[in-house]
């Protein structure tokens, strides 16, 4: 099977396993917004995001090294998995020291124990799932995605609707789902045979940590870029405003969902190609189709932002639609940034991942503080978009020295302008806004469909 067909095959498998399952979770939004008050939903969001910040610190970002080194056919898989497991267990022991710090955070001080078990189970599940993916057990990885989502749904209904546990129930549903997922992967893939705690390969451990440790601050700054504005909104405008903001964030995740399905398959394909000339051609073809699909999705979401919000959230959360357009722009460019991050992964240039992410985080925090005073929540959303745009431009420039991607610059620029115009028209509800939105979506289709179709044929049927 050639590399294009393998990419297509893996994308389809991940799509079956991920898209259907994630859509089910996405459709839980009406449940969340009907059961949880806006202030509670805002606190839940802060708990989850705080946990996501702690995960790379506790695990030393080792999951990134597990997938990268695990895909290297010259390295023993047992060494990779054992190093990953030992790193997580040691890091989690040290994590105990941070408990007093967590108790000082105003909004989440009552949920320290929940955060602790959330982080631990998430680290273990990520280790197992990334290792399974490195072993190229794509069907098992996809099946786990389906099963874990089903368990989340079951436990959400049990804890939120039946037992009415509120914030605690929301977090426990994820924790128990991660526990079951870890157990399922561990026994299904017989991961026990890869645990060899004696005679750890110290040279490999150093190489993996050298790769993963710079990604810890990179992940933190990425988190700052993506999440810091929610803390600023909560601090400046209150937890109810952050509840609306958190709800609005859920809609643009449709773009991220589509991107993540592809990126799971893409990372495996990107690492496997060793010839630089062939790799540049491969990256160029795939990126140009990828960006067209992303912008088409973004354009459609902006058009239907009011309708989607009306369907997916309760009436109390309906005003959150007005924050969606800029967040769609932000998530679209975050997906483009993630794609370029795969260049750094292939070349093992984690320092460049860190440096570009730092710039984005600093820009986001500064702009959020500047814009939130005048433009309130939408100021924070726009700041996030600008920060991701800047990181994309930085990465597009400095990845040229590794892989010379052939950009369709004019198309990328036109796509960005169209969605940005749609965003302003939607937010300010300009007269005849619906007609303008439809015209822009049609323009987007004309601009991109030919590229998607032609390249899809070349990529998957003639390559």
Record the SSE blueprint:
Layout: H1 3-26, H2 29-35, H3 38-59, H4 62-70, H5 77-95, H6 99-102, H7 112-134, H8 138-162, H9 166-188, H10 202-212, H11 215-237, H12 239-250, H13 253-272, H14 276-303, H15 305-312, H16 324-347, H17 350-398, H18 409-427, H19 433-462
Helix pairs in contact: 1-8, 1-13, 3-7, 3-9, 3-11, 3-12, 4-5, 4-7, 4-10, 5-7, 7-9, 8-9, 11-12, 11-17, 13-14, 13-16, 14-16, 14-18, 14-19, 16-17, 16-18, 18-19
Give a quick rundown of the structure.
This protein is mainly α. It has helices at residues 3-26, 29-35, 38-59, 62-70, 77-95, 99-102, 112-134, 138-162, 166-188, 202-212, 215-237, 239-250, 253-272, 276-303, 305-312, 324-347, 350-398, 409-427, 433-462.
Account of the 3D structure:
- The structure is a single chain.
- This protein is an all-alpha fold and 463 residues long.
- It is 82% helix and 0% strand.
- The protein has 19 helices and no strands.
- Helix 11 crosses helix 12.
- The longest helix has 49 residues.
- It is globular, with a radius of gyration of 22 Å.
- The relative contact order is 0.12.
């Amino acid at each position: 099977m050639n590399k294009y067909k393998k990419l297509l095959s893996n994308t389809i498998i991940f799509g079956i396993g991920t898209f259907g399952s994630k859509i089910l979770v996405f459709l839980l939004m009406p449940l969340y917004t009907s059961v949880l008050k806006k202030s509670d939903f805002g606190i839940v969001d802060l708990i989850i995001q705080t946990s996501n910040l702690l995960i790379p610190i506790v695990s030393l970002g080792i999951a990134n090294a597990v997938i990268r080194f695990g895909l290297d056919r010259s390295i023993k898989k047992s060494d990779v998995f054992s190093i990953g497991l030992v790193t997580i267990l040691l890091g989690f022991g040290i994590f105990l020291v941070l408990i007093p710090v967590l108790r000082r955070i105003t909004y989440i001080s009552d949920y320290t124990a929940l955060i602790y078990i959330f982080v631990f189970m998430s680290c273990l599940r990520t280790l197992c799932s990334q290792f399974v993916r490195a072993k190229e057990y794509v069907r098992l990885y996809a099946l786990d995605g389906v099963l874990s989502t089903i368990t989340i749904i079951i436990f959400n209904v049990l804890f939120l609707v039946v037992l009415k546990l509120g914030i605690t129930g929301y977090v426990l549903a994820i924790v128990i789902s991660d526990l079951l997922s870890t157990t399922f992967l561990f026994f299904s893939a017989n991961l026990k045979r890869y645990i060899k705690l004696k005679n750890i390969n110290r040279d490999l451990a150093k190489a993996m940590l050298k790769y993963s440790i710079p990604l810890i601050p990179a992940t933190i700054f990425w988190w700052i870029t993506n999440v810091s504005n929610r803390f600023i909104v909560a601090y400046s405008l209150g937890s109810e405003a952050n509840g609306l903001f958190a709800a609005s964030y859920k809609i643009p995740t449709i773009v991220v969902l589509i991107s993540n399905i592809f990126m799971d398959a893409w990372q495996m394909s990107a690492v496997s190609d060793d010839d630089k000339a062939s790799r540049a051609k491969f990256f160029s073809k795939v990126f140009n189709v990828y960006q067209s699909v992303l912008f088409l999705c973004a354009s459609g979401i902006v058009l239907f932002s009011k309708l989607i919000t009306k369907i997916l959230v309760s009436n109390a959360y309906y005003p959150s639609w007005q924050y969606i357009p800029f967040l769609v722009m932000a998530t679209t460019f975050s997906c483009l940034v993630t794609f370029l991050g795969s260049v750094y992964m292939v070349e093992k240039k984690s320092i460049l991942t860190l440096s570009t992410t730092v710039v984005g985080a600093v820009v986001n925090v500064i702009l959020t503080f500047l814009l939130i005073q005048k433009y309130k929540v939408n100021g924070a959303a726009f700041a996030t978009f600008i920060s991701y745009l800047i990181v994309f431009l930085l990465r597009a420039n400095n990845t040229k020295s590794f892989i010379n991607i052939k950009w369709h610059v004019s198309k990328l620029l036109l796509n960005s302008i169209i969605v940005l115009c749609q965003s302003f028209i939607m937010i300010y509800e300009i007269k005849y806004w619906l007609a303008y939105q439809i015209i822009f979506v049609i323009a987007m289709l004309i601009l991109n469909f030919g590229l998607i179709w032609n390249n899809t044929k070349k990529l998957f049927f003639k390559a």
